[in-house]
Amino acid sequence: xxxxxSVVWHILGYSAMPVIILSGFAAVAAICIWLxxxxxxxxxx
Length: 45
What we know:
Elements (H helix, E strand, L loop, with lengths): L2 H37 L6
């Protein structure tokens, strides 16, 4: 494996976990906001 390939795999490896954690957090937040918007009181008066 060349040095360039090694650098690329290290960058991919170290960036995978934060991406997984942040995308999971965003998905849970979106689902929670959607559930709360479904259950809110729709009457304005």
